[in-house]
Amino acid sequence: MEKAGARLTDPTLFHSILKTCSSLPVRYGKSIHASLLKQGLDSLTSTGNSIMDFYMKTGSLDSALYVFNSIRSCDSVSWNIMIHGLLSQGASDEGLWRFKQARIFGFEPNVSTLVLAIHACRSLGAMDEGLKMHGYIIRSGFLDITSVQNSLLSMYAGTHLERAKELFDEMPERDVISWSVMIGGYTQTGEAQMALELFLEMTSNTSIEPDGMTVVSVLKACTNIGDISMGRSVHGVVIYRGLNYDIFVGNSIIDMYSKCNDHESAFNAFTEMPCKNTVSWNSIISGLVRGEKHSEALSLFSSMGSGGFRADEVTLVNLLQTCKYVDTFQCKFIHCIVIRWGYELNELVINSLVDAYAKCNLIELAWKLFNQLRTKDIVSWSTMIAGFNHCGQPDEAIALFQEMIRAQERPNEVTILSLLEACSVSPDLKRSKSAHGIAIRRGLTAEVTVGTAILDMYSKCGEIGLSRKAFDQMPEKNIVSWGAMIAACGMNGLARDALALLPEMKLHGLKPNAVTTLSVLSACSHGGLVEEGLSFFENMVENHGVEPGLEHYSCMVDMLGRAGKLDSAMNLIKKMPETMRDGAGLWGALLSACRSSGNGRVGAGAVSHVLELEPQSSAGYLLASSMYAASGLWEDASRMRWLVKARGVKVVAGYSLVHVEDRAWRFVAGDKSHPRAGEIWDVVEQLHDCMKINGRNESESHWETQFSIP
User: Fold this and answer.
1) What angle do CA 347, 349, 355 make, to 5 degrees?
2) Please, what's the b/e burial string for 536-547 (b: 16 or more CB within 10 A of its CB; e: otherwise)?
3) Among 79, 289, 300, 530, which is disulfide-ready with 107 (CB 3.0 to 4.6 Å)?
4) Distance in angstroms (rounded) separating the CA atoms of residues 207 and 43
5) Cβ atoms within 10 A of the Cβ of 429, count?
6) What does the longest C-alpha to C-alpha distance in the chain come to?
7) Whether 533 contacts 556, CB under 8 Å
């Protein structure tokens, strides 16, 4: 038209043209804007609004603001376009500022702008502005509009649920969004039971049908409290309403079943999904990993690729958690995938890979990968420190922590816990006190987990007084803290103190759990309090509501065995549930007692059970060999040693750890690989000679006394 020399002079025609330009390349709209500038029509309010609307819809905020400032007289439409555009483009701060400015000029917002302004208050956490907005809505007569009410509900539901409930109760009409917002609010704030009750009220007292948003919140509530029965009912509603075609809903069903430990139902829900995405695959794989079905998770990963889906970082992190349960090759295989698919710079994946290598005892590969990281965050440092701990290298863990401090990385709670764990196996008390000091300076001792780790560290160092002091200084204690203190007393031979902590714990409103009761029984076992231990065990259910498990029975067998009451130990085993009699620890405790007492008759039966249940553990063979040797049954002892070699059982040698000059030195029987092995063996020979001389002198002195040799 312009090429033909014709010109548009009617401003109203430009509105439709600019509206069309918003779906075309920006240059067309700019060309129309230039034409309006030439004709001097851009300053007209209606024309300026159209131009501004065009720029807002194309994301050109600066150009839109320029046009807004050029309009001679802005009306409510101008303000609405400006504010709506800013808020919808994510410029929440400026959008709210413009909203307050517009009200000074008598601006009347439309419903759409008002809803976005409320949403901006919520996203910015500007509750004061939100309250002012609520007051303005009441004064302006917008409160009767359902969409505005729902927006206010959403704003309050995240932080002020009571206000949201008051507003919800006052609503004359509620739609599915109103119910969904309230149910979601209760779920997000940890009141899952209230969310489920509200859902039941919605489905039984109203004609409103739940939608995808509703059932996702309800399924999350079921997951949070482990209500699988309600979850199955919601699954039925999903099928009845045809919501199973919603991928988001399907993924939530898989997640619910997985976290409620019904992996078969989770897998069935997954296979029945008409449409899947990567999140679907991740949800089912994550569930299988959490349920320790590692082979099934790896098998599903293979199917994922053949199904046309490519694993993402979440998939890889989930799979890396299976490596320590499968084999070390799996860890290297996933590492290859990480390199091939370009995830080497993904911090989450690399940190998980470092952790996986460490958990597989491939600490050299973990260390190599850690050193290759271009940038190390606190997660990287904490993972590597924890890895050294896992592989029995506390000195390296402490040294790395010191290196982290030199790199000016601030330790968090997880890092401090790893440091405390490393110090707990160090014979140097100075290190433990230093770690405690670091925790104090970082303000972390008030955390229950850190306080519990500190008392546990001191108890393992044999400093039960410092352990009790740390316990008493904890501002808050949970059942784990009390259990750790009870275990600390038992470990350090204070069995009666351990028992005395039980009534003290009850005074604080805490009931013993399975772990606490086990710590009490262990304290009685090591402290020789047989009668007290038996009494406590017999009254566990009645007094504490704890059903004895395999660990409790094993501890009781150990206690009776230490006291030489092997017949009582056997009677206890016969009385316990049959399903628990296949515990290797149970028969191992009995075998250890038989070795100490030299009772080969009972021990022979224990040997057969231990070797059957744990054929690849060297502990059973060594205990049996020692028992037979103590009874003079040398052929049976020799047969045990032969079985170790024939079955290819790896013997884990015991060792002593001595701390010399800021370094822990490990001494293993028969080890000649130590750099100072020659000197060590010379000293050992000297010690043996001294022992022989002392033994001979004691023997001569004994005979002299016995026969009164002058």
Assistant:
1) 100
2) bbeebeeebebe
3) 79
4) 52
5) 14
6) 144
7) yes
Residues β-bridged to residue 655? 668
158 in Cβ contact with 122 (< 8 Å): yes
Amino acid at position 182, single letter: M
Question: Lowest-pLDDT range, 93-107, 145-159, 161-175, 255-269?
Answer: 93-107
Type of residue at 94: E
Residue 6, pLDDT score: 39
43 near 10, Cβ under 8 Å? no
Tell me the C-alpha distance between 146 and 460, whole Å: 63
Kindly list the distances between the CA atom of residue 445 and the CA atoms of 382, 437, 483, 570, in Å, as whole numbers in the listed order.
Answer: 18, 9, 18, 46
**Dist CA 49 CA 18 (whole Å):** 10
- Taking the C-alpha atoms of 125, 127, 133 and 135 in order, what is their torsion angle to the nearest 10 degrees? 170
Burial of 216 per CB tally in 10 Å (0-12, 13-18, 19+):
buried
The yes-or-no verdict on residue 54 having pLDDT over 80 is no
Predicted confidence (pLDDT) at residue 705 exceeds the cutoff of 70? no
Q: Is 648 exposed, middle or buried, given 0-12, 13-18 or 19+ CB atoms closer than 10 A?
A: exposed
Helices and strands (H, E) in the chain, number of each type: 39, 2
| 661: region left, alpha or beta (phi > 0 left; psi from -120 to 50 alpha) | left
Question: Is the model's pLDDT at 452 over the cut of 80?
Answer: yes
Please, where are the H alpha helices in 539-668? 550-562, 566-575, 584-597, 600-613, 618-630, 634-646
pLDDT in tens, 368-427: 999 999 889 999 999 999 999 999 899 899 999 999 999 999 999 999 999 999 998 876
Region 656-664: mean pLDDT is 61
DSSP H or E stretch at residue 415: helix 413-424
| E strand or H helix at 349 | helix 347-359
Q: Is the pLDDT of residue 228 over 70?
A: yes
Highest mean pLDDT among 50-54, 204-208, 572-576: 572-576
pLDDT of 707 strictly over 60: no
Q: Which amino acid is it at 187?
A: T
Please give the residue that has the higher pLDDT: either 560 or 585: 560
**Residues 6+ away with beta carbon under 8 Å from 151:** 114, 115, 118, 119
